[in-house]
Amino acid sequence: MAPAEANRLRLVDGAGDGAVSVESIREGLAERLRARRPELEEAIFARFRDVGFDPAVGEDAEYVAGARAAVAEAVDYGLLAIKHGEDGFDSIPPAAVAQARRAARNSVSLDRVLLRYNAGHTLVEDFVMQEAEHGDFSNQRIALRDVLKTQGALLNHFTTSIAQQYQQEVERLAHSPELRRTEQVQRLLAGAPVDAAELGYEFDAEHVGVIAMGAKAGETVRGLAAELGRELLSVSRSERTVWAWLGGQRRLASADIERLLSVKQPADVSLAIGESSVGIDGWRLTHRQAQAAMLVALRRP
Question: Is 80 exceeded by the pLDDT of residue 281?
Fold first, then answer.
């Protein structure tokens, strides 16, 4: 039976209390779940941690912020599907598309990405069952089966689209020298063996990690390096985000950077900066500090 036809059915509940449309049952369930949306989103994030998503250890600030945006839009999308059935399916939300591409750039495996969506789907089903058990429509079994069938179709639609977006980004990465350089930096950050000479940067030095976000992010980090007389290693993470390291043989004081930024920083660029640290371990540490600072900045209003 087509979804549109199902929505026109009139059902009699198990208690024989009267007739009610599948459409009104769906709408009531969606509204109950919408009232619990903040709880649902936080529960999904808690479930993500169970499947290897930990903002505190290794996933970059922009990726973590993107995950929150993707979850928020995916929940809205799912609630519309509950309300309207499969007729309500459309292109997946833009935040989910952006996050799939971001996952590919961050070397998050497709298996892990899909595992997280499956975990979120299971949690939504749990919430649906809770509301069905406690709501006025607890005996509307046909309607409940219809909703759960829609959720299964939605998961298949969503994960298929996510996999396509992910693979397209992987193919794009394979044909870009700049993105190859970014991959090397990521591998080095993760402790994997990399021919550091290819990056053209001296790692046996003092380093200050910088993350710049904004339309002039690249221009800003290049200007910082030139003004401070430091060697620069930078990679673009997106059109508006750059990871950078300022290297040199002397320790760079935070006060020196702050003084320069007070007169040189463009108004439309946000900077997160780590402490000056030495050697390859210090190179990783100062970047982690910048990530932690950027994560705080991204979560502010």
Answer: yes
